[in-house]
Amino acid sequence: MEGPRPVVLSGPSGTGKSTLLKKLLKDYKGVFGFSVSHTTRDPRPGEVDGKGLFCLPMLLGATLLPLADVLSSVSSADYHFRNREAMQEDIDTGEFIETDEFSGNLYGTSKCAVQDVRAKGLICILDVDIAGVRHIKESDLDPIYVSIQPPSIEVLEERLRGRATETEEKIQSRLEAARIDMEECNEPGLFDIVIVNDDLDESYEKLQSVLKEEIMKVQQGIKS
Ligand SMILES: Nc1nc2c(ncn2[C@@H]2O[C@H](COP(=O)(O)OP(=O)(O)O)[C@@H](O)[C@H]2O)c(=O)[nH]1
Ligand SMILES: Nc1ncnc2c1ncn2[C@@H]1O[C@H](COP(=O)(O)OP(=O)(O)O)[C@@H](O)[C@H]1O
């Protein structure tokens, strides 16, 4: 597909990926779009459900929903929250680019989630775990791969506890996955850049700088 290259943000749970990507979406309106993943985990308070497997071009063609409703439901959602059976059915019918089991739940990037963003000419941001990164490497997406890492496992634990969204069991399983992620992220050729998210402003500067070229492509497209 033509257009700017997508961006994959990966890194341990609690390291600051959502914080950074929300800053990008806020500061660069009309430049970035979030690929809304599917998951079987329960929504956290305040999280918005994308309500299922939509393909924006398909919906518009069928004019099932007013355009504004479709755009807002897709762009502001955190996840499409599904039960395991429904998600497995969609996986079996080939709707996903990649899926992974993380901390007892299924997560996955649907083809529609990426198409919806790319069809609008936006830089598509995907937030996936390290297994997702490896699966995406086998696809034809050709994204920029960014790993966001914590300064240390102790700091990560503080952030996870500070966010107060997980049970003790989930904190432990996330820390276990984090140890593996922290080791594997330096594997040659896996990521284009590894950003240690100590100071948030500095990390955001580094992230903007690695995405500068793609951001300019979209901004120049908007002007012309
Ligand atoms: N492979 C894959 N991983 C995902 C996807 N969506 C989210 N994840 C990863 O799943 C993990 C858990 O995500 P989440 O439950 O939202 O917790 P959080 O990252 O701590 O906010 C994180 O490492 C995400 O990057 C997806 O579509 N595919
Ligand atoms: N650089 C930072 N310094 C201190 N706290 C941070 C930093 N970046 C993120 N946080 C905090 O850490 C917690 C986890 O961040 P979050 O963006 O939810 O992580 P992720 O999306 O990677 O799971 C949040 O409470 C967030 O406010």
TrEMBL record:
It catalyses: GMP + ATP = GDP + ADP. This is Guanylate kinase. GO terms for cellular component: cytosol. It is found in: Cytoplasm. Keywords: ATP-binding, Cytoplasm, Kinase, Nucleotide-binding, Transferase. It comes from the Eukaryota. The gene is GUK1. One of its GO terms (molecular function) is ATP binding. Belongs to the guanylate kinase family. It comes from Salmo trutta (Brown trout). Residues 4-212 form the Guanylate kinase-like domain. Its main location: cytoplasm. PROSITE patterns: GUANYLATE_KINASE_2. Its EC number is 2.7.4.8.
